[in-house]
Amino acid sequence: MMMKFGVTSGRAAFAFAFALLLSLSATATESKARFDIPAEELGKALRDFAIQADCNLSYDPASVKHLQAPAIKGDYTVPDALSLILRGTHLRAVNINENTIEVLDSATTTDANAPGNTATLRIAYAPDAQAPPPADQNTPAAPDPSNSNTEDNKTPGLEEIVVTGTNISGVENKTVPILTFDRDAIDRSGFATLADFITSLPQNVKSGNNSPDGFLSGAQFGLDNVENSTSANLRGLGSSSTLTLLNGHRLAPAAFGSGVDLSMIPLDAVERVDVLTDGSSAVYGSDAVGGVINVILRKDFNGQATTARLDTLTQGGGELKQFGQTVGRTWDTGGALAVFQFDDANAIRADQRSFTENSPQPTDIYPSSKRYSGVLSAHQSIAPSLEVFGDALLEHDVGQRNDTSGYGHPQSLLITNRSNSTSTDLGARWQPFGDWHLEGNGLYSQLDTQLTEFLSPKLSGYSNGAPYLRNLETIKEGDLKLDGTLWSAGGASLKAALGASYRQEAFSALTEYTGADSPTSRHVHAFFTELYAPLITAANAMPGLQKLELSAAVRDDDYSDFGTKVNPRVGIFFSPIQQVGLRAAYSTSFRAPNPIELLDVRQNTFAYVESGFAQPGDPTGTVPVLLYGNQSLKPESSKNLTAGLDFTPNTLPTTRFSLNYYRILYDDRIITSPIYANVFINPQIYGPLITQFPTEAAAQAFVAGLEPPQTLFDLTAGQTGLAGVRYAFPYGEINATKERTEGLDLGTHSLVNLDQINKLILDLNATYIKEIENTFCTTCVSTDVANTYANPLKLRLRAAAGWSNTAFKVNGAVNFANAYSDTNLNPPGHIASFTTADLNASWHSSRTGTTLSVNVINLFNQNPPLTAPGYNRVQYDPTNADARGRILSLQVRQSW
What is the spatial distance between Cα 251 and Cα 239, in angstroms, rounded to a whole number? Predict the structure, then answer.
């Protein structure tokens, strides 16, 4: 892959910084901590180690039973101290991030459901730890990892570890708010797919282009989400504002380039999911405005597992048959993983639900689909300081749905989509000296979708069943990064990363029966640098100041179609006492319009007359209105502020409380035009968007002057052209002058050890959106769209509790969404709150490796709250509710 980079004064600054990093790196040393651990049971030694290393340590209590650890006393690096503790055992340590270590059994599978790994204990640093005594000078020195070939003594940091929120290897950026869901949390949720798991998060919002049933809310008449995909949408800011990564790298998006389809990633391949809920354009690029979803693949799975699952819906339709096969191998110098998954899902017809039974038939709420997906991942050390790695995602999907337009001239469509997705990433990681790493990788990702339609009545010039539309979305990217420790002394250190990236994005929407093509492409080259400074750590802590960490990042993105944008980020983490951590960060973000937004602007070359809008001066009457395609769109930019608190009480060392605040201020925010019934009686809100005509001749002249010329359609019953039309309003994507949103996230996680084998896990994840205020001009009155139909709700939460022992697990969860306004009515109506419960139970046989699971999603079969009839006379809100009802599932998993 050819990489081109221009040279400007800004690039020269980056080059100077690069040279500075190299010149300073020679002074880098790895910091040590004081350890004083007596000879004792290994489980107790690991807990003492976690306290004195000031880190999180994860291990299976069963794997350390009856094992003893030797005494260690003195100043050691964390890897060397843990190596001494584990010497002579069958255990090995893996760095999850800078502050989290997992101890694994090298002799058995690391499958979360396999024998010996059913009860993982998370240990946080103990807040009441006492300072250890001075080092014993007679204690033997820690072994030199370079002189040993054992698994436990690999060179620290050589293995590629995927971290989220930073470009610096092995660093947990504590200034960034991140929700991490490990394999156990995913299994306890009971969901069949990654898409359902992400959709259940309160921070995520469904909307028209990121859900298979989103078209029912009227978004582009259901034609945009041609793959029937489900994408992440953090904060409800749109799928285009959430960056979804696989092992830290990009994937080609679906739905005309608006968001990555989560459904194509096999759930069995996932080790954990990191959800970064802060603007991260300074680290990842412009489209990480609302946050990042980083899906991390399993890396050290050793064994085989076969999974079969059947989901049935109490109210009919939607049956899912799922089969999966996982094979993994690890060896001294590497590992490989292969996962295959097949999903066969039936459609849900509108006449199978009471709240959609009045929709024109035939209409499907959810499409039918057959999906084949596979993941390949491998890493191999080819020298003591050199590792190569790669992963690939392959997917084929065939989906079908019926959709019947509810306008004055009904037209039935049977839409069939065939999609093929390919994504590969290959790279190498070299550790030339100290903890410095040079990493390079190349990415290729493509999504190819073809549509066929059967229309009744037929579309002029189109033969039913012939190829109708082909979408081709491609990303090619090359990245190069250098990172390591610049300076370290007395417990403080300064870490840095510097790199460059080049990306090509191409999109084409070919209407095959007419030959009309809408290609668009861009290239983006970027330079970035990042600093992370743990100034106060356990080694140099003092009363009132246990930790102090600073972060700073800047990224210069140069878009071929929208110019250059530099985005900085600065953050701070401060811990006055070990139980409390405080963080704050400020950043800016920038997002260029995506393909569907640009395509809408180019192709919205028609105007139409619609009715049903409230008449100014007479709220009971309605007027015909001219709606016309917007012809210009600018990039959006934002300023992001976050602040947070983490609290681990002395009396509950395995319990964590977290509170996060966010505020985002947008300029030129790209939104979908707010075509509400009361638009024209609120000129103080929508002022510059409203065009008023004194006469019919003025309306005709307005249409004639639109560039490019627009064809006029009449979608009203009995209306004649522009007769009586006195108002016009743009539709499609537009720029709002300002948007402001702010809110809070609250989370708790607690693990209670009832005895040696019985565990209790309690979780709460809640989000509160104070406001989403749009302002359409500098003098306009802002309007708050939060808590309105098809928009994010103010309060959503998920509370869960689970019990487990070595054989059984039982988990339950409650999901709540508050009541809100129905803006399909004038004046707005009321939509009730929505509460559902989930329940799942599993049994595992350590003798046979068999796991049986029973899951019930929406235990009490709650229907979505009713709304006024909307698009296609649908009487529920697809953005904020699920039409499937109770889902019963049985899953069998065999490890062998």
Answer: 13
